[in-house]
Amino acid sequence: MPKLSLVVPVYKVQGYLPECLDSILGQDCTDFEIIAVDDCSPDGSGAILDEYAKRDDRIHVIHLTENVGLGRARNAGLEKATGDYVLFLDSDDTLSDGALSAIRDRIEATGDPEILIFDYARTYWDGRVRPNLRADVLKEEGPDTFSLAERPQLLDLLQIVWNKAYRRDFVTRTGLTFPPGYYEDAPWTFCSLISTERIAVLDRVCVYYRQRREGGNILKTVSRKHFDVFDQYQRVFDYLDAHEELAKWRAPLFRKMVDHYLTVLERPGRLPQDARAEFFHRASADYRARVPKGFTRPGGGRGHKYGMLERDAYTTMVSALAAVKLRQRVKSRTRTALNRSKRGAMGAFYQSQLRLPLDDNLVLFSAYWSRSVSCNPAAIDAELARLAPHMRRVWAVRAENASRVPEGVDVVRVGSRAYWAAVARAKYLVNNVNFPDSVVKREGQIHVQTHHGTPLKTMGLDQQKYPASTDMDFEKLLERCDRWDYSVSANQFSTVIWERVYPCSYTTLETGYPRNDVLVNAGSQEVRAARAALGLADGTKAFLYMPTHREYQPGFTPPLNLSAFARELGPDVTLLVRGHYFYGNSPHVDELRRTGRVVDVSGHARVEELYLAADALITDYSSAMFDYAVLDRPIISYVPDWDVYSAVRGTYFDLLQEPPGAVATTQAELLKLLSSGAYDSPETTKRRDTFRRRFCEFDDGHAAERVVRRVFLGEESLPPIVPFDERHHAPTPAQALELVERA
């Protein structure tokens, strides 16, 4: 049997769950089991658990058939636990390094106490770590084990279950279980502490308690569910009534009850306004029914509030809180004045437009900081024209890029009056990056964030770990992301990352990437047309080379000698090069360009057409690999600086270990792969298949339709994802030529 059993209840935490599990599995103490309870989670959490369980037999997954809530999910895990001690860990929190070893060693050093209490720290999205303010009560002073009567100040710790290790036979003997409800930790914590005779402490931070910016915290939720606190304290006092030997704890627990009730009343953002009086009167009734004989109220203002509860003086309480509300209103007015000042900088015209009604049939698109009409927004635009032609579709484009806009596209120049009118009045705003800080999110507006690639490199808040790669203001970043209503995802891998690194209140649309629909639906004519537009003759092998940008380099320098490389590939090969700009002024490159051996496609409007035209893709860390994989054509990873790139920017997986095909780290290796044909072998095909199943999960050719139906037409029932093995994709150039010749 393992020494430790960790019960991890799981519900809607797919963005945080891998980090939680990794923090357990990475411990130097290995004598544990994980009982993970999928509380009928509607997201991908259950699948994540199953994937981890396949890789580590210490993980046991329970899939509940209905959502039962945190307490009863813990009970389900507790029933399956076999360890000497049981720990509970919430699935968005993490263990500190070495935590389980420290817990195990302290348990052994203190002679197997019934409860071991350890420390924790709060962690925040911006990297702050705040210690437990009552860590002083965990000082390892005096006897190794003691009763609660010897250290009653332990009751002043936060009422949580996950900062303790419980001896399993103690839990069984006392019959402790978690009740349903919102505040289920209170009865478990209090009843266990007053029942034990042997407590030990560990003065060490073992758990990092995540303070989620959005969601996942009942304390930030305005709801009548906070009335659940009455049921939980009823359970506490019922336990006291059933155990006369514990009567000495009635007064301390009465004080904890009253303090808890007052906290719910005083903290903004918990009770609905129309429920506050009802809550107060119920709290007052509990006070009078449970006040112990001879109870002495605390002194000062706190004692005054106790008195108001005892007298059921709600009006007096409201008056007492008026000063606090006044200070809050002053702060609110200050914020409003600042916001008005910001809006004033945008111009009076924009302000006037913000006062006009929204146009329910106006959609404003933008892509790549308003540089082009492209990517996912362009694919959504086209599908919207098909399914909702009554809607007016407008694109925001910078003046210097206006000449590149396709004919027939309705454009507003960024910064113009027409632009500000569209930003202010469009019901829908669609972008693959964020709109500028100056854009105000109006009530009723719907923002769709489509993103522009599956991430290999770290994104969003994860970039805080790699400061050399960015000078981003992360607070401003999240303010921009707060405007999102929908986040489009191509695969669950991306979903998990987006929800963690952009922790805002949006809805994820796991539709696939709209821009990749053409890679599934294109036929031989589209492939032939794409090649003809690039001047590629029949029988020519075309390699599309797409190196990505390196933040640590002052400019874009392709890590490939283009002239020498193209020359060595031979006359039947054309190299399509797409970079931040075409690099190379040598006469050899000029000559190769004139002969068509090297084609600069950096300015090509639609990268999807380049994918259709190319026989294979050569790239490094670009998200192009994830999109091109939809075509099921060879992908070669040319990564001569992997060690530097992964260290400076950070990546979500090891590309050398999980590549989409062949890998080369030198130009000589790359040339050998291409010349010999080894880039397209049974082994590389197997790698590509694994890669495609993971990262092309939802790309079945109907992504744009799903987005349009869900966002613009309000449909809840969307076209189902086509099973992976039943999907088609565009023919290869050779297949397209064969089909034409047959015809």
Automatic annotation (TrEMBL):
Q: Which residues form the Glycosyltransferase 2-like domain?
A: 5-112
Q: Which Gene3D superfamilies match?
A: 3.40.50.11820, 3.40.50.12580, Spore Coat Polysaccharide Biosynthesis Protein SpsA, Chain A
Query: Can you tell which superkingdom this protein's organism belongs to?
Result: Bacteria
> Which UniProt keyword terms apply here?
Cell membrane, Membrane, Teichoic acid biosynthesis, Transferase
- Tell me yes or no: is Membrane among this UniProt entry's keywords: yes
| Classification via Pfam families | Glycos_transf_2, Glyphos_transf
* InterPro entries referenced in this protein's UniProt entry, alphabetically: Glycerophosphate_synth (IPR007554), Glyco_trans_2-like (IPR001173), Nucleotide-diphossugar_trans (IPR029044), TagF_C (IPR043148), TagF_N (IPR043149), Teichoic_Acid_Biosynth (IPR051612)
Q: Where is it located?
A: Cell membrane
Is the Cell membrane keyword given for this protein? yes
Q: Report the family membership.
A: Belongs to the CDP-glycerol glycerophosphotransferase family.
PANTHER family in the record, alphabetically? TEICHOIC ACID GLYCEROL-PHOSPHATE PRIMASE, TEICHOIC ACID GLYCEROL-PHOSPHATE TRANSFERASE
Q: What is this protein called?
A: CDP-glycerol glycerophosphotransferase family protein
Q: Which organism is it from?
A: Streptomyces ardesiacus
